[in-house]
Amino acid sequence: MQLEDIKGLGNTTIKYLNEIGIYSIDDLINYYPFRYEIIENSDISKLNDGDKIVIGGIIENVPNIIHFNRKLNKMSFRLNTGSFVSNITIFNRAFLKDKLNVGNTITVIGKYDKKHNSITASDIKFGLIEETLIEPIYHSSFKISSSKISKIIKSILGKVKTKDYIPNSLIEKYHFIDKDKAIKIIHNPTSKEELNKALARLKYEELFMFMMKINYLKNAKRKSDGLSRNVSYEQVLEIINNLPFELTKDQLKSVKDIYDDLISNNRMNRLLQGDVGSGKTIVSFIALYINYLGGYQGALMAPTEILASQHFQNFQKLFPNLNIVLLTGKLKAKEKKEVKNIIENGKANIIIGTHALISEDVTYNNLGLVITDEQHRFGVAQRGNLKNKGITPDILYMSATPIPRTYALTLYGDMDISSIRTMPSGRKPVKTYVKTNKEIKDVLYMMLDQIKAHHQIYVIAPLIEESDKIDLEDVYKLEEKMKKAFGKVCNVGIMHGKMNPKEKEEIMNEFKQNKIQILISTTVIEVGVDVANATMIVIFDSYRFGLSALHQLRGRVGRNDLDGYCILISDKETKRLEVLTRTNDGFKVSEEDFKLRGGGDIFGIRQSGDMNFKIADIKNDYDLLLRAKEDSETFMKSKEYNDSKYDFIKKQIIQSANLD
Ligand code: ADP
Ligand code: MG
């Protein structure tokens, strides 16, 4: 059956349906209402002026009609509701006049003007409403209305057989109603109870198929086409024992997870997540070392030049016996060529760099491991850019934005996850304060205390962003102010996105060496920068940032046993900012961010197409998602899964997983 076969459906309507994405009967049947209008008689005593009203009554007079033009008209009449007489007005329904006779019983749906006891009606139903009416509301367009869509769908309900993607064992387990019946109810519900059953059925199916896909990706994608390495855990322990500090329990566990991945021939696809300052970098270094011991080249990609060179220096310090190169977009052509040569001929053991690692024309030599810092997930196309003569490297992603469990399950559902939840010992929570611009004097005194204690301070300047073309006035003004306040007791430096990498690096180095005590900066220091003696961060206009971003910034201080302070200066949204004064746990902060900003683009990752469910809602149906996850895992391992009658499920999964 095709759209053309639906009785009374003309080409124009089909065109309108096409415009909202409906091309087939299947599309139509699966075009679910996005909400329902519940129509039940109103309790007049509870209504306020302007509320929606549903009320039955008897028509008292012949409706009066005014025609404005061919299309526009207004009809009015009196309705006796039993408790009062109301003036009803309704637009463009002149065609109903013949059915609206004096003495007829009707129900009016509309907006209630309490003072005048009048109703502006949006709809009229004949007779009284005994029970609740539930009207499906569809996403519609100017050309085709929700009620028209509803009519078309209703006309084919019951005539179409749908495919049922839930295996029998699970239908029995949850006593799910029949799929076709659920579809019928979704488009034409008669009670809330049955609607809930139908919703549960269809939502579950959607989530189940989603989790099946995720499981499939997880299993199929890297089965045995990975690299194995001949490295003993004793060798790893030797590295660990030679570190200048003792690893935390979670760091050790993460190293072990990664080690297991690296020696097995399953391809690693792992996310290492942990709060700012939890010590992910050292874990990644050890991973690179294990990879090196296994005979492969390894690469670490950082989001900024500063971070890349910081990692480069730290790695060299810790493992001076390896040959490490730094590759960033800002190298001079000649240097770049040299570095690329060393990479290609295999002399480089470890390559650390920025996006240049994949965007430049680099040929790797036996590349076994790629690590990206701060959740730069890259897609298939970019992975292809890692020119590597046929080898598919293991991949480790690092993220300092802890992801609420909901999101982890979906966004990163096809990945394994290692979490570092505990901070290195001796870390104290950063004391956080929210201050207004009027209280700047207090802030300056707090800063002075830190300077007197020979500590250093970050000041995040307002309004400047790396990519912006705006003038640097604000930053320079701030520099002037800071110099006025502190110029006699310490050195004030400035760093911003318009500086070239060399200048930035110089300033950063001066700050690291404590030649500068107060560093004014735009957010270029946001990720990963590490200066242990910096104990305070002052953030101007902090309302401009999301809580997670502020938490990241705050992570720049309190990186050792010294007390750390974060001062959020803002005249707006102070309530929201105060969340940060109450918790130092990045997982909690991101949950709050999630609550405040909803399921949008919180993590800087564009919501993947995967997350746009038709009927399920990732936030509200989270429990159902968890169940679907468990069930899908059990199902995939069961005998039932191999029954050929479920081949179409597998086919569907593979199709939607759209494998590379
Ligand atoms: P992030 O997880 O934010 O990338 P880093 O890896 O930069 O954090 O670690 C922050 C600081 O903590 C660094 O100075 C690092 O050397 C130090 N560090 C990491 N692990 C430990 C540990 N187990 N004990 C003490 N200090 C550690
Ligand atoms: Mg880091």
Description of the molecule:
The chain is built from 23 helices and 21 strands. Helix 6 (192-220) crosses helix 23 (647-657). The protein has 660 residues and is an alpha/beta fold. The two termini are 33 Å apart. Strands 11-12-10-13-14-9-15 form a seven-stranded parallel β-sheet, sandwiched between helices. Helices cover 37% and strands 18% of the residues. Mean pLDDT is 85; it is low at 465-470 and 599-610. It is globular, with a radius of gyration of 32 Å. It folds into five domains: 1-40 and 141-157, no CATH class; 42-131, OB fold (Dihydrolipoamide Acetyltransferase, E2P), CATH 2.40.50; 161-223 and 621-660, no CATH class; 233-420, 3-Layer(aba) Sandwich (Rossmann fold), CATH 3.40.50; 431-583, P-loop containing nucleotide triphosphate hydrolases (Rossmann fold, 3-Layer(aba) Sandwich), CATH 3.40.50. The site of adenosine-5'-diphosphate (ADP) has 18 residues, from helix 9.
What topology, given as strand order, has the largest sheet? 11-12-10-13-14-9-15
**Share of β-strand residues:** 15-25%
| Beta strands, count | 21
Question: Overall mean pLDDT score?
Answer: 85
Radius of gyration: 32 Å
Count of DSSP H/I helices: 23
Note the gap between the termini: 33 Å
CATH architecture of the largest domain: 3-Layer(aba) Sandwich
Under CATH, the topology of the largest domain is which?
A: Rossmann fold
